[in-house]
Design a protein that fits this description.
The protein has helices at 9-12, 15-28, 32-43, 50-58, 62-80, 119-132, 150-162, 182-190, 205-211, 220-224, 226-232, 249-267, 296-309, 323-329, 369-378, 388-391, 396-404, 409-426, 430-445, 450-464; strands at residues 83-93, 136-141, 172-176, 196-197, 238-241, 273-275, 314-317, 336-338, 382-384. Strands 1, 2, 3, 4, 5, 6, 7, 8 and 9 form a 9-stranded parallel beta sheet that branches. The radius of gyration is 21 Å and the shape is globular. It is α/β, with parallel strands linked by helices. It contains 20 helices and 9 strands. It folds into 2 domains: 77-389, Aldolase class I (TIM Barrel); 405-464. α18 runs parallel beside α20. 48% of the residues lie in helices and 9% in strands. α14 links the parallel β7 (314-317) and β8 (336-338). Bound molecules: iron/sulfur cluster (SF4) (2 copies). The site of one iron/sulfur cluster (SF4) has 10 residues, from loops.
Length: 472
């Protein structure tokens, strides 16, 4: 039944194939020759398929795990350098008609405060985000055809792009809304969105149906086939993710890679990003009632293996994770981070009163954006506010070709330096400005192409003189 090119969810994510894969992985988890062969394939930057990667995930030999970690770090550096792209989520509305048992926005939760931002409130949120220094947002909304129809989402996107406060601008809006129709995806595409993100939650159909007992999201096939519809609607860049903790992680991991393989096989473009959220505490939600939680070491291994299996993808870690966990997984291939996130509706402009909550989950990293930027610089990463690719039309297969040939780094690196310079000029604390300026000087020296180096240096001087928005 497994058919990578099928457009039917149960065929490109075949339960039978996943179970066979897990049995194969168990049978080979101590097979050193095979593990070395798989690691060698990964070293050639060819990526790994779900079977190969599942063998590595099952392997618990410490020396091999360290090899996986070292390889993940090297691959991330080869593809994306030391830049880490920053973004923030923006919650528009927590009205939702679905019954997801792990999310506080589920319809039957009567004690959570429901809120939907007006356009004036969206503008206030955007100004607050711009005043921190953010340039890239991921908008989030529950599924509710009456309260949050596509027209509402489109209006919010227009508002977000229209706000130019001081030197601020949101230059890329990624969208995380429920699975929808080809027609609606076309409208999102026409509104100029960046990536369309939809978490699968779980690839196990039986669990999926139990975890989504009511509402349109109950339909496993409709949800799982959403990315194919999004691409049919013209969206070039899509972002995958599972919510680790709902099902057995090895099952999810195999399903996630099968989904990536399917997108590549039928559209020629794999996932632009992969997110790795873990189940968190929230109003009405106790993570201890889900018994598939994963520990930090397993989480780290999953991150490293996603990086070596899908080397071209952007890997995202949110503020669901603490500073300590983020520090642990950053060197394992993470390429995007959220910073200073609020997971409540309207939480940037006005922090919530103690007795009111509209949050989707508890944030574990509560630092300000400046603190996160400062921390990244001290660890030798370049915090990047770059949004250049989508604005230069480098999306879909154009992006993938550059990325797979490891040429995207020629854009990422100078763009990271220029957008960091903007951040330092407009928003940074004195200490962050000082260490950030030194980092920029050092990193400019590393640009190999003399012409690019000269242009980037000139642009950075122009930014110091008050000009903005340069990009390669
Ligand atoms: S996960 Fe999404 S669809 Fe499910 S209840 Fe929460 S907001 Fe609604
Ligand atoms: S150049 Fe493209 S891939 Fe690199 S950080 Fe900018 S938008 Fe992302």
């Amino acid at each position: 039944m497994y058919d990578i090119k099928s457009f039917k969810a149960e065929e490109f994510i075949s339960d039978e194939e996943i179970l066979d894969t897990l049995a194969y992985a168990d049978a080979n988890k101590d097979n050193v020759d095979l593990i070395d062969e798989i690691l060698n394939k990964a070293r050639e930057r060819k990526g790994l398929n779900h079977r190969e990667a599942s063998v590595l995930l099952a392997c618990d030999m410490e020396d091999k795990i360290q090899e996986m970690y070292a390889l993940a770090k090297q691959i991330k550096e080869d593809y994306y350098g030391n830049r880490i792209v920053m973004f923030a989520p923006l919650y528009l509305s927590n009205y939702c008609v679905n019954g997801c048992v792990y999310c506080p926005y589920h319809l039957k939760n009567k004690h959570i405060a429901r809120k939907k931002l007006t356009q004036e409130e969206v503008a206030k949120e955007v100004i607050a985000l711009q005043d921190m220094g953010h340039k890239r947002l991921a908008i989030e909304a529950g599924e509710d055809p009456v309260n949050n129809p596509i027209e509402y989402i489109l209006e919010c996107i227009d508002t977000i792009y229209s706000i130019k406060h001081k030197n601020g601008a949101i230059r890329r809006v990624n969208v995380n809304i429920a699975a929808t129709t080809v027609e609606n995806y076309r409208k999102l595409h026409d509104a100029g969105i960046g990536t369309y993100i939809l978490f699968q939650e779980t690839y196990n159909k039986k669990s999926y149906e139990e975890l989504h007992p009511t509402g349109p999201k109950h339909d496993y096939a409709y949800h799982t086939e959403a990315m194919d519809r999004a691409m049919e609607g013209g969206i070039d860049d899509v972002g995958l993710g599972v919510l680790f903790g709902l099902e057995l992680y090895r099952y999810e991991f195999a399903g996630l890679l099968m989904h990536a393989e399917h997108l590549e096989a039928v559209h020629g473009v794999g996932p632009h990003t992969i997110s790795v959220p873990r189940l968190k505490r929230a109003d009405d939600i106790d993570p201890d009632t889900f018994d598939n939680g994963i520990d930090d070491d397993t989480f780290a291994k999953i991150c490293a293996l996603i990086r070596i299996s899908v080397p071209y993808t952007g890997m995202i870690i949110s503020t669901r994770e603490s500073q300590a966990v983020r520090e642990k997984v950053l060197p394992l291939g993470v390429s995007q981070l959220s910073g200073a996130s609020r997971t409540s509706v309207g939480g940037y402009a006005e922090p919530e009163a103690e007795d009111v909550t509209t949050e989707q989950f508890d944030v574990s990293d509560n630092r300000t954006l400046d603190e996160v930027v400062n921390w990244l610089i001290k660890m030798g990463h370049i915090p990047s506010f770059c949004t250049a690719c989508y604005r230069e039309g480098r999306t879909g297969d154009r992006f993938m070709t550059l990325c797979k040939n490891m040429q995207i780094l020629n854009c990422c690196h100078p763009n990271a330096l220029m957008t960091l310079k903007e951040y330092l000029e407009d928003y940074a604390s004195p200490e962050t400005k000082e260490i950030g300026s030194k980092l920029i000087e050092q990193e400019l020296e590393k640009i190999p192409n003399p012409k690019v180096k000269a242009t980037a240096t000139e642009y950075i001087h122009n930014i110091a003189d008050g000009k903005r928005d340069f990009r390669f």
